[in-house]
Request: fold
Amino acid sequence: MVQPRNYAAFVGLFVVILVSSVAESGFAGTKEREPMLVSTSWLQEHLNDPSVIIFHVAPNRREYKYGHIPGARFLWTNALQYSDPDLTLELPSLAQADSTLESLGVRNGVRIILCFDGAAVTPTTRVFFTFEYLGLGDRVSLLDGGLDAWKAEGRPMTTEMPEIQKGTFKPTAQSNVVVTCDEVRKDLDDPNVAIVDARGEQFYEGKGGGMPRAGHIPGAINIPFSNLVDSTNKMKSPAELKAIFQRAGVKPGSRIIAYCHIGQQASLVYFAAKYIGYSVQLYDGSFEEWSGRNDLPIDNPAQKKSGK
Reply:
């Protein structure tokens, strides 16, 4: 029979081992997300890290074939989105996402780096948002400045296509990152919610935009997505971003709902807000859906000025 003192020591050792095991596996929720931005120097140091997957995000494969970061895999922007007769840009089904992630070789435990080509920042932050929705958010980062920054610094390029082994990651929808139009309508008068319109100022003011109705969601504030990056498409500093959000009227501690025309430009506001510590969601239907529903209110400053 085990002596009480030895038994207590045994139980204590067992608990320590169990807690350590849980924490290491990530089930205890102690694992912090990977940094949202990585530098070109960090990426070059990790080019041969088998736990790092680089995706060259672009609307076509042409530039990728001409040259890409060594080891980078091509990710077509359309592979993780779909359009239907009602809305132009929507999140993929889990079945579509599962097939795509499998073909890209995504597996448990990998670190994912997204690299945009040229000025294609918002299509890439849209992929970032989609990965968050699919349950990959804590391991996805954006290469600051994208491929242009990498090439400008004379870093290595290649035309070789990497071999890709079939992936094993199973996506799980994280519904807390996205909101519907009915949820937005419910939050219109909530003082703790900041609805942010990521479109250019002219569209916010009701001057065009190609939507069923012009203007913006009532109470929304305007933070044009283009204001969040510098002239080289690098993210502005956290201090600069915080100042932009605060000047626009976003209070510290607010929950942000970002929208734009179809849900792509707003993904950069989503990224920036999350980067500086805000709780943020994206209205995926965006103004395309809102303006197309006559039962939903619109604020049109241009119309008010004209007296119509």
